[in-house]
## 1
Amino acid sequence: MAAIQVLIVDDEEEFANTLAERMRNRDIVVNVVGNGEDAIASVSKTAYDAIILDLIMPGLDGIETLKQILSINPDLQVILLTGRGTVSKSVEALKIGAFEFLEKPIKFDDLLGKIDNAKSLKTTLSEKRTQEMIDKIIGRKGW
Amino acid sequence: MNPDNNIKLKEQFLYHRLGFSGAITASVTHELNNVLGTIEQLSGLLEDLAYSISTGKSASEDQMNSLAERIARQTKRGTVIIKRLNSFAHSSDAEYLNCNLFEIVENLSALANRLARAKRSEIVTVAPDKEIILWTSPFLVMHIVFLIIKSVLPIVKRDTNIQIALTGKNGDSVVSISCEHTGTENNLALDKEIISLASMLPASIDCQEVDDRFLVDIKIPFLAPQT
């Protein structure tokens, strides 16, 4: 089975790197970037199973980054990391298409569980899209 | 003045003071939350290491020392944040105090820097040639500087600094806040509250545009320290 691929987007460098180290200890392939612009560039190149995205970041914030990431690949599963007092923004993010959100400080096991769920959902969506494509071709050819 | 208007003004003033304290506390607690979140993950990493040792894998002394250093660095960061917040909280112990003006401004800058970083900017302070000790309201000074920072944030050029410099001029103390702005179409709109707070200090505000920079001077008349 292919390793899970995760992108962490957080300007808290030490936090993001530590999270990445712990994930790598569990054979997850992880990339870390510190802002929204780099996240968008990375998503354009790699097919991640889950994106861990901090809601509050300098420059392009979490909501704007989320919108742009999903416009590149709507099947991407984004787990938002939020602080206290950002409930309305979290709800907005879920409406835009975020998969889940977790409040900081996070429980690592909770995060791993959500990454697993994200991977399963992404696989299901991907299979569904492939099936839809096959059905379309069959329909067009009249088979 | 009509007594009702006076009460309304006092209520407004208190409301703004609370708003300022709230904004600083929200920003600082967010930063502390980040520190605690990082320490939690670092301790988790330590647990991961302990687990891998228990399964027969080896861990080097360097790995252990590096982790201990990383935890210590975050603890130190948290301690500095708490010290700054504590100093901010005590700034309203008395309305007027003998103050080191640079210490007040530097503390506020550190507390407000997270807001600046959100706009991809950084607040930097420039110390005066000579220490400025005066009799003033530290809370009011911080409140005015904070509101000016908030006013310049929407127009500050990305990846540039907001500079706060202190000078002593003709017996007055001047706090100069300057930044590069994003373009000529942007006007600096200072909050009306700033002027009314300045008159209470008492201080005067001078705002000007020089080339592509906005410059706001807060001129505080020198009041000798009280014994």
## 2
Amino acid sequence: MPAATPSVVAPACPTEIAVELTGVSFGYDRKRPVLAGIDMSIPRGKLVAIMGGSGCGKTTILRLIGGQLRPQQGRITVAGQDVAALDRDGLFAMRRKIGMLFQFGALFTDLSVFENVAFPMREHTELPDELIRDLVLMKLNAVGLRGAAQLRPSELSGGMARRVALARAIALDPMLVMYDEPFAGLDPISLGVVGQLIRKLNDALGITSVVVTHDIYESLKIVDYIYFVSEGRIVAQGTPDAVRASSESFVRQFVDGAPDGPVPFHYPARPLDEEFARAG
Amino acid sequence: MPASTAAVALRRIGRATLNSVERLGFAARFSVAVLVHSPSALRRLRLTLREIYFSGVLSLVIILVSGLFVGMVLALQGYDVLTRYGANESLGVLVALSLVRELGPVVAGLLFASRAGSAITAEIGLMKTTEQLSAMEMMAVDPLARVVAPRFFGGILSMPLLAALFSTLGIFGAYLVGVRLIGIDAGSFWGNMQAAVDFRYDIVNGIIKSVVFGIAVSLIAVFEGYNARPTAEGVSTATTRTVVASSLSILALDFVLTVFMFRGLGV
């Protein structure tokens, strides 16, 4: 992994790269850049977390990797393919090799759990119904929800919905799975279950995983490598052990949950005395 | 100071105009994209049939009940006026022509916009809010083909059927009031109607109107839903816009179509 930004640990030995971002900049409008010169490389088979405060651009990185957004500068490659250079058909062909788990599952509310997991298979394969049934039940079994196949998404708890979405994300045996805030709003048991599932599926299926989250404790337990993003830049990176031992101020504030630090408590404003003098 | 106020006003007008033109252009591009993806609605026949059920079958109650009452009221009002001129036996003609040419397509269109159009917008808008459309895109499935095209086609196919049923129930309501309640001769009620209503001139034109209204309402509904801001307020605003824009479009299109279809009126 490159150490293009302040690093808390020496990069790991380069292996085959699944996803690479080089000098990526992006903004939803010209006035407010969201990402500024992001460099990141994710080796095949690894589980990598992208962490940072709310609104720092983490989800935008996932959308850029998936080709839903195009970088204004820089280059993004997935399995060696330049994402921005792909046309619509090429992009869709690439996405068939990618699974994505959205923040609250994004299950299709008009379909049952079974049909949600079967959805990518029905859309992209000509498999007979019997085979689809077996594959769907295997995927649901992998996330422990074979018995919930006939439930509707509205009948699931948050943790169950996340697990169904995970089964759907791996339905076509992707090479890369991206997770957008997979731990948000989960109770401790569901959180542990989802965390362990992400790790086990990554290892068992040999996929590459990118997890966007701000749950530092769960991430430290399961991931191989962590990137910290703040104000559109990578401010630190390293393995979980290196992160725990780090004295880097942003990492410490994040790990310790300190209210003030490199990420300030106060939104930028005029000095207090000036504000009250004006009011008086 | 007045100059600066004028400049600000001018800037606002300019910005509003630019935004409107941009939105219009965006809507035109969206419409073309929907039409390009329309054949996929035929390939996904089950989805399209499901949408016909949701926008058509589930709208039946409001359409049938409204049609019945509109027909009954038309009969009461029409009888009152026709009696003054000694033409009360033309009640069937009056009701049938009013319904087939105008009220059937227009009122059914307005009800369709309120009942089905708003539901389509809200459903697509909520799918967007809950990232279902993004999830679909990330699964390499085009939401325009999977979500929008079946709803668009379902609306177009439902609308003429609903308008026809509205007119049918309206005529039946007029029969109940005119023949059963007031006592007009049933033979003259049906006979005059049959003689005066022309299939090509009246019924086909009415069907054409309802198809055009179906296209307008369905297109507006899917456009507003697909481009709703992904918030609760955004979906609510989009739903309201669908009803308002659809209703105004129906009334404006009705005028234009009537001018072209019924030139014998002397326009």
